[in-house]
Amino acid sequence: MTTVSLGHDPRPATDEPPPAPPAGGARRRRRRPHDEPPRWQVLLPLGLYLLFTLIPFYWMLLFALREPGSDSLVPWPVTGQHFEKVWTERGFDTYFVNSVRVGVATMLMTMLVALSGGYALARFRFRLRMPFMLALLCSQFIPGALMLVPLFEVFRELRLLNSLWSVILAETVFQLPLSMILISGFIRNVPASLEEAAWVDGCSRLRGFLAIVLPLLRPGLVAVGSFAFVHSWNHFLFALMFLNSNDKQTIPVGLNTLIGSDSVDLGALAAGGVVAAVPVVIVFAFIQRWLITGFSAGAVKG
Amino acid sequence: MAIAHQERPARPKRPRRRAGSTSRCLPYLLIAPAGLLMLGFIAYPMLSVLYYSLRDHNATKPWRNGFAGLDNFREILTDDPFFWDTLAFSARWVFVEVGLQLVFGLVLALLINQTFVGRGLARALVFSPWAVSGVLTSTIWLLLYNPSTGLSRYLADAGIGEYGTSVLADTGTVFWGAVVAELWRGVPFFAILILADLQSVSKDLYEAAGVDGAGRLRRFWHITLPHLRDAIVLSTLLRAVWEFNNVDLLYTLTGGGPAGRTTTLPLYVAQTGIDGNEFGYAAALTTVAFVILLFCSILYLRLSKFGGDDR
Question: ABC transmembrane type-1 domain spans which residues (chain A) (predicted)?
């Protein structure tokens, strides 16, 4: 039995060489600089685009940090009063905690449910497989905004209105189809023979999965999980509709209130924006490398 | 088969049926959580939308509620000029946004795929607006577009443009004002997806083409672009649907104004259903929007021959 699983080993061994050519190619290319575009043709447009990306962020920081009434283009002297105001007076301390709760719960639920469903789609051929895939794809075309009214009715019947669970469930459901398709792509990339070898060695399907497949799925799971977190952190309409008391609101709704108030306090608005941006930007900085490998493994080939 | 042997060593006579029954039940158990969630929170609400679309339903005028047949649909198609306006605006919005995002995203991915010092940092910075929400994008661009404290004022100080330019209040500029704001957030999505796919282009192909004397442009046209085709088709489709349905940005940036100039179809639905309380009519609009979206998507996948080579 073990010889059968070992029989697959030579193949990974022959797969080993490919990583070498790129290195050789890079070396060769360094010897032929004319093969690459000239430096300025890369750096100039990239620099311009970087300005387009960063000026808006800078503008927000500028308004959040400089003193009220100042019109200097440098936030100096720095003041924290806008943050203090937004955090304590405008309720962003509560909104922040709510947003974290919604984001983390959505992330965990999406990952668990998508993992289980994605495994079924990747490893089994069953009668409802194609209909289910079709339903997943079709659900991508349903406008979330257009589901607000009927979902509102559903949550009222379930007595979940004004509970964070309504938003968590709605976010999870709309996050699921794409996450499941992505994850099943990642799982398909893990050779089934690895798992089968574990069963032969006496592992149950679950243990085989946990020990062999799950560690290899890490980049994909990070991509899907962070996707779910960022989306639910950012999403606005569900929270606006389903949560009506002020102590249940999330950050995007708080921002919208600041935008909509009669005399817009630009400093407070900018500070609120910074509070909304910081967590996702941090998450993003950590995951962006994995996001790209994750996508190249799952989305495109899957 | 191998599992069956492991689980039932005592009964080697019926391994096949055992294997059959476990692997017949297991996939259904595994998709059950997802399936139930989607039945409860997507399928059921969808059906109720269909039901309401055939009714007059207004929570503030309950005496008028009742079965309406296809009246709502007839009114939408023949008697509601604002529906056609919003549909036309939606089409223009999706077309311009997705087109520009794709072009910029592709160029950005090609640039950032080159090797240079500080590439990791540049990549993180350039991609960062991806993580920003529609409301936050609105917040930031409202600060930038503000006529008295925004960028235009400082540009006017420097002699460029006029004081008091309000991009979002002018019917001539509001469209492009919103387009630029959404572009700022949307380009990284394409850049990330395309970069992911770029990294799987075989270097050997380029080398071979280089040996044959193909220039950079020709190699891009004949190697890179065909390789990226499926990724481009899929990402443009996902993005088009997403941009069509996206309400957050326009709702908070322009509120559909000025004078209804930036009202997309979903925004119109939200206004009809939520602000106007016309659930029945909004449900019919939803149904029409869904059918249009599905039809366009199928047409797009057909025309682009998605996955045509290998499937």
Answer: 96-287
